[in-house]
Amino acid sequence: MKYSSRFAVLAVAIAAILSAGCAKKKVAAQAPPPPSPPAATTQQQSNTQTARTNTTPTPTPAPQQTSRMPNAQTRARIDTLLSRIEDAYFDYDKHTLRPDAIKALEADSTELRDILKDYPDYKLTVEGHCDERGSAEYNMALGQERADAAKAYLVQVGIPASQLATVSYGKEKPLCDEHDEACWQKNRRIHIVADSQQR
Predict the structure, then answer these.
(1) CB distance 163 to 124 below 8 Å
(2) What sign has the CA pseudo-torsion 70, 72, 74, 75?
């Protein structure tokens, strides 16, 4: 009987050890899945990714620039106006604009101004001319004063100074080759042309 009770106790102990060992194996075999990230963190990551995607700048198309130079049709209109503007004439050894010179410049200069304001890169040249009398150096200076006087008037009318260049030809480009007052008067003038570099 003592032997039986010892055997029973031993059997119960072995059974307990075996059952505990089996339980550990089952727990180890069924490891829990990794914890899922909290919903708030997932939302933040999603928002950050969306924000990065949205912060990529989308290229904006460059605005179309209007031409600062007139087209062929407008240039033809300017040339017509320039041909209609009479040369302004000067008295002997003078560079002040006479009333008839002002009238000549005034005729089409306002229309010319209205066209040029839309084309700021288009330029005109005011040429100063003299008659044959006097030295070349003196006439170059006088021709420049005449061109400057005409430019000042055109600026007063409203043509931007930046669109008006001046040049003096002195007595180098006469309109008339006779040696009398009637011819000399034709040579004492200013003449307005389109800047030759624009052609």
Answers:
(1) yes
(2) positive
CA atoms of 176 and 132, how far apart (whole Å) = 10
The residue written with tokens 């033809």 in the block is 76
Q: What domains are defined for the chain?
A: 72-198 (3.30.1330.60)
Amino acid 49: pLDDT = 56
Unique residue bearing structure tokens 């194996």:
25
d(CA 128, CA 190): 5
pLDDT in tens, 7-39: 566 666 666 665 555 444 444 455 566 666 555
Q: What share of the chain is helix, strand, coil (3-state, %, to 5)?
A: 55, 10, 35
Q: What is the pTM of this model?
A: 0.64
| pLDDT score recorded for residue 89 | 94
Which helix (H) or strand (E) is 183 found in, with range?
helix 181-187
Q: Is the pLDDT of residue 75 over 60?
A: yes
86: left (phi over 0), alpha (psi -120 to 50) or beta: beta
Q: Rounded to an integer, what distance in angstroms lies between the CA atom of residue 175 and that of residue 131?
A: 9
Label residues 135-168 b or e (16+ Cβ within 10 Å = b).
eeeebbbbbbbbbbbbbebbeeeebeeebbbbeb
Q: Do residues 152 and 107 touch, judged by C-beta distance below 8 A?
A: no
pLDDT > 90: percent of the chain = 42
